C-alpha cells in the first residue's frame, strides 16, 4: 500500500522527498521505506522508528540494511560512513 | 592475552569461553577481531576482565555485563550493555537504539552519538554520551544518571521516575512529566565525578549542563492526567 501511495505521489509530480514527506502525514504505523527509482534511491523511517535501519555511504555507493551485519561484505565498508537514519527524515540520492 | 578471530571462531564458542572464566582468572585481557556486526558479542560476562572488540558489533553487545570492562573500537547495534549490572562498557563509535536499556549498574560511555531510546527504563546505570542522543531517550527511566554532552531529541525523559538527566546542548522536547530542574551543588559534584569517570572532564564544565528530572505527577493515578498515561 505504501508503495502504491508513493508511486501515486511520484506520478502526480512530487519529487521523491515530497512523496516521502507526504507519507509522514498520510500513513500511520511503523515502517521503513527503501525506494529505488530510475535515477534515485531514498530511505524514510516513521517518526517512532522502531524498525532497525543502518546505512553506509562511500563515494561509490550508498547502501541500506536493517543491521550492519548485512553490509559487511560490501567493498570498502570499513572506510564507509556508517550511520543510522534519523526518524521522519527523508534521505534521498538522485542522479541527474 | 587470548585473541579470538570471529572470522574463524564461532561466536557461541567465544561467549562460552568468556562465561567459563572464574573471578580469579589469569586471562584478563581478551581481544576480539572481525566482529563484523555479529550479535550478542561478549554478552553475559561475569568476570573482572577487559575485552576489546576491534570493529563494529551488532545487537546486544556486552548485554547483562557484570564486572567486565568491554571496549568497542567501532559502532554497536541495538541494545548495547542492555541490562548491565556492573562494570564498564566503552563504545568508541556510535550506538544504535536502546543503548543501556534496563541496565542496573556500571558505566556506559559512548564517544559518538546514541540513537533513539538511549537509557530506556534504565535502573541505576550511569550513561555518558559524548555526542547527541535520539528521541524518546530515558523513557520510563527509573534510576541512575544520563549525561549528554551534545543534544537530546524529542520527548526526553517521557514518564521517567528518578533518573537524573544532564544535557549540555539543546533539548528538542521534553516528554510527559519531565521537567528542567535546578542544578544544585550536589548535582554539579555528581556530574563532575561522572565526567571524570568517563574520561571526558577535560574542558567540559558541569556548569554548562542543565538538569532534567521527573515532576512526579504521574506516580499515582489522577484522573486529570488520564491522557498522559
Unreliable stretches of chain A (pLDDT < 50, length at least 5) are none
Order of neighbouring strands in the sheet with most strands of chain B: 1-2-3-4-5-6-7-8-9-11-10
Helical segment count of chain B: 2
SS content category of chain A: alpha+beta
Uncertain regions of chain B: pLDDT < 50 for 5+ in a row?
none
Order of helices and strands of chain B: EHEEEEEEEEEHE
CATH superfamily of chain B: Glutamate synthase, alpha subunit, C-terminal domain
Give the class of chain B from helix and strand content and strand pairing: mainly beta
Largest interface: A-B, 16 and 18 residues
Q: How many angstroms does the end-to-end distance of chain B come to? A: 51 Å
Tell me the CATH topology of chain B: Pectate Lyase C-like
Give the strand tally of chain A.
6
Q: How much of the polypeptide of chain A forms β-strand, as a percent range?
A: 25-35%
Q: Please give the oligomerization state of what you see.
A: heterodimer
Please tell me the overall pLDDT of chain A.
92
* Overall CATH architecture of chain B: 3 Solenoid
Total domain units of chain A: 1
Residue share in β-strands of chain B: 15-25%
Task: Note the main sheet of chain B.
Answer: 11 strands, mixed
**End-to-end span of chain A in angstroms?**
28 Å
Number of strands of chain B: 11
Amino acid at each position: 500500500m505504501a508503495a502504491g501511495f508513493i508511486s501515486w505521489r511520484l506520478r502526480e509530480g512530487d519529487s521523491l522527498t515530497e512523496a516521502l514527506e507526504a507519507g509522514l502525514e498520510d500513513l500511520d504505523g511503523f515502517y521503513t521505506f527503501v525506494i529505488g527509482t530510475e535515477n534515485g534511491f531514498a530511505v524514510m523511517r516513521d517518526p517512532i522508528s522502531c524498525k532497525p535501519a543502518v546505512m553506509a555511504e562511500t563515494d561509490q555507493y550508498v547502501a541500506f540494511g536493517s543491521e550492519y551485519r548485512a553490509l559487511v561484505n560490501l567493498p570498502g565498508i570499513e572506510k564507509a560512513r556508517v550511520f543510522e537514519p534519523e526518524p521522519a527524515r527523508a534521505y534521498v540520492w538522485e542522479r541527474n | 592475552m587470548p585473541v579470538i578471530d570471529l572470522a574463524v571462531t564461532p561466536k557461541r564458542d567465544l561467549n562460552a569461553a568468556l562465561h567459563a572464566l572464574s573471578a580469579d582468572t589469569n586471562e584478563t585481557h581478551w581481544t576480539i577481531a572481525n566482529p563484523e556486526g555479529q550479535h550478542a558479542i561478549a554478552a553475559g560476562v561475569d568476570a573482572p576482565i577487559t575485552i576489546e572488540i576491534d570493529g563494529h558489533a551488532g545487537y546486544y553487545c556486552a548485554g547483562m555485563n557484570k564486572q567486565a570492562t568491554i571496549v568497542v573500537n567501532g559502532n554497536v547495534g541495538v541494545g548495547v550493555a542492555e541490562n548491565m549490572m556492573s562494570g564498564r562498557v566503552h563504545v568508541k563509535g556510535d550506538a544504535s537504539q536502546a543503548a543501556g536499556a534496563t541496565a542496573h549498574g556500571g558505566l556506559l560511555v559512548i564517544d559518538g552519538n546514541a540513537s533513539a531510546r538511549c537509557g530506556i527504563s534504565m535502573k541505576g546505570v550511569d550513561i555518558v554520551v559524548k555526542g547527541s542522543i535520539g528521541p524518546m531517550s530515558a523513557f520510563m527511566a527509573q534510576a541512575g544518571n544520563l549525561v549528554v554532552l551534545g543534544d537530546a531529541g524529542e520527548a526526553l525523559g517521557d514518564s521517567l521516575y528518578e533518573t537524573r538527566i544532564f544535557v549540555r546542548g539543546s533539548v528538542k522536547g521534553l516528554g510527559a512529566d519531565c521537567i528542567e530542574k535546578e542544578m544544585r551543588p550536589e548535582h554539579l559534584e555528581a556530574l563532575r565525578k561522572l565526567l571524570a569517570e568517563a574520561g571526558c572532564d577535560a574542558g567540559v564544565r558541569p556548569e554548562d549542563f542543565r538538569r532534567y528530572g521527573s515532576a512526579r505527577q504521574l506516580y499515582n493515578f489522577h484522573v486529570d492526567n488520564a491522557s498522559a498515561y
